[in-house]
Amino acid sequence: MVLVLMCAFTTVLNAALEARSARRSTTAALLRLGASARLLRGAAVLRGAALLLLLAPVAWGVGQLTTMPFTHS
């Protein structure tokens, strides 16, 4: 089960890093328009917390399902 959770975590981390690089130009534009760095950091924290709160239970459930034994009745 630990392996499944580690794979799920790695997948989420990879997706977050790709999204960050995709948002780089948008972030630069917002800074040019006058958005504060504090606001952008707060938005990043909110996105990270949402990912953690939504995907951690899903990863745990998948881990539980993959470690369940198959039984035939």
UniProtKB/TrEMBL annotation:
Sorted keywords for this record are:
Membrane, Transmembrane, Transmembrane helix
**Top-level division of the source organism's lineage:** Bacteria
Q: Where are the transmembrane segments?
A: 45-63
What is the name of this protein? Putative membrane protein
Please tell me the species this chain comes from. Streptomyces himastatinicus ATCC 53653
